[in-house]
């Protein structure tokens, strides 16, 4: 066979190159796109009345004895019956009455399951160390605009995030200590940062020209504050302090508009003696508000692995106790993840528990980027490492799995079939 003519060889080479580049671009694009999940159905079986709670428990600044990722490796995977028991839940109403609802789960075998554990052996304590990489969002120009405006303060001393116009997602331990509801839950309130406060006679009152209009360029400033996948390092070291000091601005003490909670729902998996070593996986609760605040909420999302994302970062904002009434934002890398838990590097203090952990990816088939809640920050926990009593302290977040997504959707909409694709 003689030599192949250049006129034939050149187009073939160009075509091969184009196909290879296109395949690589599609792979990269998929890494930045929200995956679509088939979500199981959670349905009510039966609801029974229970006696009113004592509301005698006290808030815990730190959780201890938690069976974490390493400890859970020694626990068999729960059966369908186990999962249905863990996802059954209690509802407490504003008048102090309480019910128990058992549920059934359908279509679980149709849900794609990711690997049980993706391990990394690096470990870091939760307490602020070295350079404090948190950003105080004290200027209402930013704190009352999306995405920061979705963060709320819980009257028991925690944080939360709006996941619908009238529903707040928070940590279960902010409501219940595993044995009883906290003192104060019977009059639970949620605080939303107000865009502006009433002023004296010389100022503008309600209905002024400045009501909630976003000024030109604000969106870009929010993106800069949030540090979305640009600049900074995974652990926010080095230049983080300089950025923080430049970004932290103060235009008066923030104020809140407080709203009463209509009802509270907590999964039984969080209760002592129900899920044994898996209780940490169920440290989440949903609060239904009596009135919907006039702010945007953030949708829930499901992601198989945060560590495998190109940047591998998570973000969340909450009301840390050491910065009273100020919203505090942070972003950081994930050090280890399992099906239900995340260990991460974020600097945080008590008060930030219950914050919504989110990431930002492209919507399928669109160029638009969208933030979604993928977890709940559980806080500083003393974790049982190997089930032998040896404990270490970590930052822990509870992941939103397809099954938890279905349950939360059921709580919010009353029908999880409305959310069959995450």
UniProtKB/TrEMBL annotation:
Q: Where is the signal peptide?
A: 1-23
Per UniProt, which keywords does this protein have?
Answer: Glycoprotein, Secreted, Serine protease homolog, Signal
Q: Where is this region: Disordered?
A: 193-254
What Pfam families has UniProt attached to this entry? Answer: Trypsin
Q: Which GO terms describe its molecular function?
A: serine-type endopeptidase activity
Q: Name one GO biological process term.
A: proteolysis
Record-level GO cellular component terms: extracellular region
Keyword Transferase found: no
Predominant place of localization: secreted
Q: PROSITE patterns of this UniProt entry?
A: TRYPSIN_HIS
* Keyword Secreted attached: yes
Residues in domain Peptidase S1?
A: 141-185
Where composition is biased (Basic and acidic residues), the residues are 219-232
Q: Subcellular location, in the record's words?
A: Secreted
Record field: compositional bias (Basic residues): 196-218, 233-246
Per the record, the similarity remark reads:
Belongs to the peptidase S1 family.
This protein is called Inactive serine protease 35
């Amino acid at each position: 066979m003689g030599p192949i003519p250049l006129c034939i060889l050149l187009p073939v080479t160009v075509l091969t190159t184009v196909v290879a580049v296109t395949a690589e671009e599609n792979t990269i694009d998929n890494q930045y796109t929200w995956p679509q999940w088939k979500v199981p159905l959670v349905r009510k079986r039966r609801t029974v009345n229970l006696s009113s709670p004592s509301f005698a428990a006290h808030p815990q600044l730190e959780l201890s004895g938690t069976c974490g990722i390493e400890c859970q490796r020694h626990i068999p995977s729960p059966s369908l019956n186990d999962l249905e028991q863990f996802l059954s839940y209690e509802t407490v109403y504003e008048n102090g009455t309480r019910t128990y609802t058992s549920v059934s789960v359908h279509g679980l075998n149709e849900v794609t399951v990711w690997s049980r554990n993706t391990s990394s052996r690096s470990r870091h304590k939760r307490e602020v160390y070295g350079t404090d990489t948190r950003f105080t969002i004290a200027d209402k120009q930013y704190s009352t605009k999306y995405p920061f405006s979705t963060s709320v303060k819980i009257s028991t001393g925690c944080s939360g995030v709006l996941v619908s116009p009238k529903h707040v997602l928070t940590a279960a331990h902010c409501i219940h200590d595993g044995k009883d509801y906290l003192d104060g839950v019977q009059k639970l309130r949620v605080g939303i940062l107000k865009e502006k406060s009433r002023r004296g006679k010389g100022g503008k009152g309600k209905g002024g020209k400045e009501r909630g209009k976003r000024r030109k360029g604000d969106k870009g400033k929010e993106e800069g504050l949030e540090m979305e996948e640009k600049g900074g390092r995974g652990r926010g070291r080095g230049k983080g302090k300089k950025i923080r000091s430049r970004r932290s601005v103060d235009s008066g003490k923030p104020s809140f508009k407080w709203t009463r909670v209509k009802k509270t729902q907590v999964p039984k998996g969080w209760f002592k003696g129900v899920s044994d070593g898996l209780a940490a996986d169920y440290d989440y609760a949903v609060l239904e508000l009596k009135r919907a605040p006039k702010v945007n909420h953030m949708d829930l999302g499901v992601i198989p692995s945060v560590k495998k994302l190109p940047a591998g970062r998570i973000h969340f904002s909450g009301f840390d106790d050491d910065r009273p009434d100020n919203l505090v934002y942070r972003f950081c890398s994930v050090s280890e993840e399992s099906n239900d838990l995340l260990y991460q590097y974020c600097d945080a203090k008590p008060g930030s528990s219950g914050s919504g952990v989110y990431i930002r990816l492209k919507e399928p088939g669109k160029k638009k980027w969208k933030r979604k809640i993928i977890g709940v920050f559980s806080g500083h926990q003393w974790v049982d490492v190997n089930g032998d009593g040896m404990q270490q302290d970590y930052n822990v977040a509870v992941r939103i799995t397809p099954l938890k997504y279905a349950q939360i959707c059921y709580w919010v909409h009353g029908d999880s079939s409305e959310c069959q694709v995450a």
